[in-house]
From TrEMBL:
<dbReference type="InterPro" id="IPR003593">
    <property type="entry name" value="AAA+_ATPase"/>
</dbReference>
<dbReference type="InterPro" id="IPR003439">
    <property type="entry name" value="ABC_transporter-like_ATP-bd"/>
</dbReference>
<keyword id="KW-0547">Nucleotide-binding</keyword>
<keyword id="KW-0067">ATP-binding</keyword>
<dbReference type="Pfam" id="PF12399">
    <property type="entry name" value="BCA_ABC_TP_C"/>
</dbReference>
<protein>
    <submittedName>
        <fullName>ABC transporter ATP-binding protein</fullName>
    </submittedName>
</protein>
<keyword id="KW-0813">Transport</keyword>
<feature type="domain" description="ABC transporter">
    <location>
        <begin position="5"/>
        <end position="252"/>
    </location>
</feature>
<dbReference type="InterPro" id="IPR027417">
    <property type="entry name" value="P-loop_NTPase"/>
</dbReference>
<dbReference type="InterPro" id="IPR032823">
    <property type="entry name" value="BCA_ABC_TP_C"/>
</dbReference>
<dbReference type="GO" id="GO:0005524">
    <property type="term" value="F:ATP binding"/>
</dbReference>
<dbReference type="Pfam" id="PF00005">
    <property type="entry name" value="ABC_tran"/>
</dbReference>
<dbReference type="InterPro" id="IPR051120">
    <property type="entry name" value="ABC_AA/LPS_Transport"/>
</dbReference>
Amino acid sequence: MKTILRTENVVKNFSGLVAVRDLSFEMAERNIHALIGPNGSGKTTTINMITGAFPVTSGRIFYGDTEISTMPTHQIARLGIGRTFQNLKLFTSMTVMENLMVGGHQMMPSGILRFLIDPATSRKEEKQVEEKAKQVLDFIGMYDLKDEKVSSLPYGRQKMTELGRALMMDPKLLFLDEPAAGLNPSERVEFVNIMLKTFDLGIDLFLIEHNMDVVMNICSRITVLNFGAKIAEGTPDEIKNNDEVIKAYLGN
Ligand code: ADP
């Protein structure tokens, strides 16, 4: 099976605190992969390094055959790596549609400098992004809410908007930081369904998730961190019965 993502001996040091230590793992293509571990074990820091938000202290990260360890965030996004954030990063005073369009414009040739190009090209781009936003809204079941201000929506809808914005950037590999957190049971079922539909579109998923039902039900492979180090890796069944993992969670 082809590897889509690989880290080699990755370390992240925050002025003396080692948040991630010597982390090596691989993710195979066409997979839903989970990164789990107790609070503070280095999961978000790992995503931040892979997506370019934090530089690695040492070690290397590869997306396919391309080394991305030192690439800036926007370049990594353009390669096809998307993400959502644990604390949503939406423009809450803007509408759902406007938030999606911001994501879409970032991937257009003119990007945020679109106002400097000629009006006809700019209008064409605007139309393309708008069409795509409508398709994504339909896909996430939020077309009817497109003109609502994000701040007026329940948390579950805001989270779905953030997923929609990430989809506007045409990811091939999507990182989701705690997708189920804060959702009520019916919102959680809906979000899981949309994640599975997203996977069916051909987008590989990498989740950080605390909800073990979600992890065990939809992920094919799990990497477990504790105190910044990998302590286990395997299928849901292997991880469920792993003594190191049980100890790490009970000790927390
Ligand atoms: P997790 O996502 O598993 O809960 P994090 O990756 O958020 O863990 O954090 C791992 C460790 O790194 C924690 O001790 C946290 O306090 C520390 N940390 C995370 N981000 C920063 C930062 N920007 N500056 C300093 N320390 C940080």
